[in-house]
Amino acid sequence: MFEILQIPIIFIIFSLMALVPLNVDGSKILNKKKFTFLDISALNLIINFNILLILSIIPFSLDLFNFIYLIFYFSLFVYIYFLQSKKLNLLIEIFKLSIIFFIIFFIISICVANKLNLGWDAKYFYYIKALFYIQGENFSDLKNFTHNMYHPHFGSYLWAFFSNILPLKYEYFGRLIYVYLFCFSIFYICHDNLKDKFLSNIIFIFAILVSYKYERFSGLQEILIFSVLAILSKFYFKIQNNQNIINIISIILGINLLIWIKAEGIVYATILIIIISLMKKISNNIKIYIFSTYTCLILFKFIVYSFFDMVINGQPFYTLDYILNIEFSYLIYKLKILSSYLVYYGLNNFYFVTGLIILLSLNIQKKSSNYLNTLNYYFLLSTIFIFFAYLLRDLEIEYFAKTTLERIIFLSSGFYVFLVINFLKKFNSNFLK
Amino acid sequence: MIEYIKNKKIIILLLITIFFGIKTNFFKNISELIQYDYNERLINNYGFCSNESIGYLKYLKKKYNITDNPQIINYAQAPNVTWSIINTQNINNNSNKMILLNYPGKKFKSYLTKVNESLFEFSDHYFLSNKFKKINYIEISNSNINEINIKMDIYTITNKNKKVIKSLIIKNLKTSLNLSADEIDEESKLFFEIKNLNKLKIKDLNFSLNLQNKYNLEDYQIIEKEKNCYYIR
Fold first, then answer.
1. Which helix (H) or strand (E) holds B114?
2. Is B168 helix (H, G, I), strand (E, B) or coil?
3. Do B20 and A113 touch (CB under 8 A)?
4. Pick from A107, A123, A131: which is nearest to B20 by CB?
């Protein structure tokens, strides 16, 4: 029973990350008309995840960071909401709105707490990397782990950080942050403001239900990319009408998380940057600013890895020799196998298949919108990525597609969540505007 | 409270939430969470001395305060289990102790997988390559056979290169092979091909291999034993 009581406590700890450092009721830098409290919560989460990312590189023990985190964030929360603004009514409103969010989080958390099974890659790589931090080591020690070079580390750090934060130090508490981020991303997309909670809540529950399965939270990292892409899909929608610097910063910080989660994350981050560079509404100056920042973020990762004498991505399966010598008939064979698995897994993923159907119908209806263009580019670039990644890799295609393609489609579908949910909410009535 | 209950919207939300709970097995999960503590749930999921045997590994780690990364050999087909007791501060070193999980005895059997009527594969070869010392004999599993005369080639395929390593004539249900594990590259696929299938009267042949275990318990000191799981040095 004591174990179950820890779940609401960890929910509060996670929620602190959504409530500070920026006041969700609007601060001096955020215009209340342009940013809802959920927009600011999403930005808070992204900022805090970036802070955790920086902490993951700094060589101090996890216990110390956990302690500082709890004290600092709790103090900041009290200061912002009780001493500075004294907006108790707002907190009560947020509390009421969050009830359904908490219930869904609690239900999924109970499932994670009971099942405990870790995914294949989690057992081999991600959890072992998390254990480095839990057992008192730090980023530089990861080079002692042979498999470190294949797998970026941020998800493992999150896992370690939160499994160590409560008195009961069970492994699965760390995975509950994945549950929280997943629920938050869908909740954020379903709710625009504090009004019309009923319909939004119903859509929220069904939106979770259609994409939920335990394996997503078994320590595999795709859920993180899915959730970040889902949050960013809403930011990309907002940026069409409002090129506010805060929106741009939110997107850049979100993209930075993708870079550190998984190798595929870097590809999706690049796709999102390309999409921005193709947006007509964004000025060239801002595009240059975004592109330069992105380049700096990638360079930062390279510098960190080379400073600690690590290989940034040691995937041994892509070689120029293989790509240049691949036979055409074998390429066709691979294409055939890949296409069949792509169709199969695509049809089994609600957001992927529904997103594509909506996208197709909007294109047929010749609806014109910048956001539609954004989605078209995303679909095109992510599909090209999938084909290239599978066709040019020196691995037995059937085994490779069978074991990994479902997860790639799932993480990729995160960017369609906003399209699908917004379509369902507004039944195609000007939902692109 | 009564106002809330009377509110239709709340009732609808409650029903949908219950539906969500049912679809995700919430009620079963929470009852098990109340019934069993963390270690019991680990055992329920991973087995104590079966499958991944995480229960046994956690038990040993706690009892012997294991921090020296003993080598773990699991004879059950299961994913990596080292995560359950690994000490990352010493990650690339193994102690002189070992943990044998689901130990099958000095000799054990592995069935060949039928590729087609004349071709069989030792599909567990890669998994068992660090667990057997030699293949003692090949055995025909069909029991109702009187007359046998099978010509068989045993070959490996490594990077698309085929190499015949043994040819034999099978006249009994058991035929000696004496094939050392060292003779077969662990990355290779090992095939058994019947060369005279068209002359055979018997159909649906099934084969198994009798393997000599690489680890003989008589050569080690047993520190702890539970069913067929052993902590040895």
1. strand B113-114
2. strand
3. no
4. A107
* Buried-state track A134-157, b at ≥16 Cβ within 10 A, e below 16: bbebbbebbeebeebbbbbbbbbb
Q: Which residues pair with B166 in a beta bridge?
A: B154
Q: What is the dihedral of CA A309, A411, A174, A81, to 10 degrees?
A: 110
In sequence order, which residues have a C-beta less than 8 Å from that of residue A141 and are 6 or more positions away?
A132, B88, B89
Q: For residue A7, give every residue at least 6 positions away whose Cβ sits within 8 Å of its Cβ, in sequence order, or none.
A: A106, A109, A110, A113, A176
pLDDT average per 10 residues of sequence, chain A (433 residues):
90 94 74 77 95 92 90 92 80 86 97 94 92 92 79 89 91 96 96 78 94 94 96 92 84 95 91 92 89 94 89 67 77 90 94 94 83 92 91 82 92 95 73 55
Q: What is the Cα–Cα distance from A181 to A331, expressed in whole angstroms?
A: 39
Check CB contact under 8 Å for A103 and B45: no
**B89 at interface of A, judged by CB pairs closer than 8 A:** yes
- What's this model's pTM, rounded to 2 decimal places? 0.91
Q: Do B20 and A111 touch (CB under 8 A)?
A: no
Sorted by sequence, the CB contacts under 8 Å of residue B156 that are 6+ apart come out as B162, B163, B165, B184, B185, B188, B189, B190, B191
> How many Å separate Cα A50 from the centre of its chain?
12
Q: Which of A1, A111, A198 sits opposite B34 (nearest CB)?
A: A1
**A209:B23 CB<8 A:** yes
Q: How far is Cα A26 from Cα A87, in angstroms, rounded to an integer?
A: 12
d(CA A188, CA A206): 14
Question: What is the count of residue pairs from A and B with beta carbons less than 8 Å apart?
Answer: 93
Give the distance from residue B51's alpha carbon to the nearest chain A alpha carbon, in angstroms.
Answer: 13
Q: Which residues of A touch B80 (CB under 8 A)?
A: 123-124
Q: What is the pLDDT of residue A429?
A: 52
Q: How far is B13 from chain A (nearest CA, A)?
A: 7
Question: What residue type is assigned to position B202 of the chain?
Answer: I
Is residue A329 within 8 Å of A336, Cβ to Cβ?
no
Q: Do A3 and B45 touch (CB under 8 A)?
A: no
B9/A120 touch (CB, cutoff 8 Å), yes or no: no
Q: Which residues, including other chains, have CB under 8 Å from residue A87's CB and lie 6 or more apart? A: A25, A81
Question: How open is the CA angle A209-B22-A108, to the nearest 5 degrees?
Answer: 55
The letter for the amino acid at B11 is: I
Q: Are B200 and B188 in contact (CB under 8 A)?
A: no
Interface contact flag, A202 B12, Cβ < 8 Å? yes
